[in-house]
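Cross-posting from the chemistry board since nobody answered there.

I work mostly on the small-molecule side, so proteins are not my area. We synthesized zinc ion and want a rough idea of how it might sit in this target. Sequence and SMILES are below. Is it possible to get a predicted 3D structure of the two together?
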Amino acid sequence: MITAAGTHPGHRGPATSEDPTSDLKRLLDLQRVDSAIDRLNQRKADLPEQRTLDEVTAELDQARSAHDAKKTELDAVARDQSKLEGEVQMVDDKIKHESNRLYGGDITSPKELASIQAELDALRRRKNHLEDQDLEVMERREAIDKDMAGLTERLGELEGRSTASAAARDTAAVEIENELSKNAAARASIVPDIDPELLETYEELRPKKGGVAAAALEGGVCRGCGVSLSPVKLDQIRHGEGGDLVRCENCRRILVRV
Ligand SMILES: [Zn+2]
């Protein structure tokens, strides 16, 4: 790329010699570009899209933990349920076995028959108890299933929002990078038009003045600080006294007549 540096190889061009204010006009152009770069860098460092993404990510992490915890609860209740069902099955098998003995006809001793009957009664009570427990576990499981469905839905919704937020952040970041590139190119084309000494003064002043070293002088007012210049100063400027470089009496910024 041929930059302005190629057309101004280290000395002031003819236009500059003819018009002593053009250097300053270019300085004001540079100030505009530098202010734009500062704003872009500020925005880049504190992207609203990044903040939104951070918030969604925090919510997503919470939702994932809640979902995982509920899954652990669900697994535990499922284990309880299958254990109880196994026990009911075992008791059922024993009841069947004892009933067969009771009604099979092989046992005739009244004492033994009474003992089997007592065992059967005990087994049926045990079965009832287990079935009550199973009912409780089923109710618990229903509640957990319901919670789980809600948490899964929330997780899905947050995952969608996270993807969208990340895309929005990426778009914003790319936009800023594009703008920064454009401004960097603009800066590179302006800098060779400015006298190196003036540029040095500007660069030294900028960090001390909140990024604004060059300000327009409009209607006798410094646009850098908003203060009107004294009539004496304005008179000096009008008569070209004090050299090319005019500084604001109040904020010391480089003034550029527009
Ligand atoms: Zn000022």
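Reply from a structural biologist on the board:
Welcome over. Reading the output above for you: The first helix runs from residue 4 to 7. The CA atoms of residues 6 and 192 lie 9 Å apart. Happy to explain the token format if needed.
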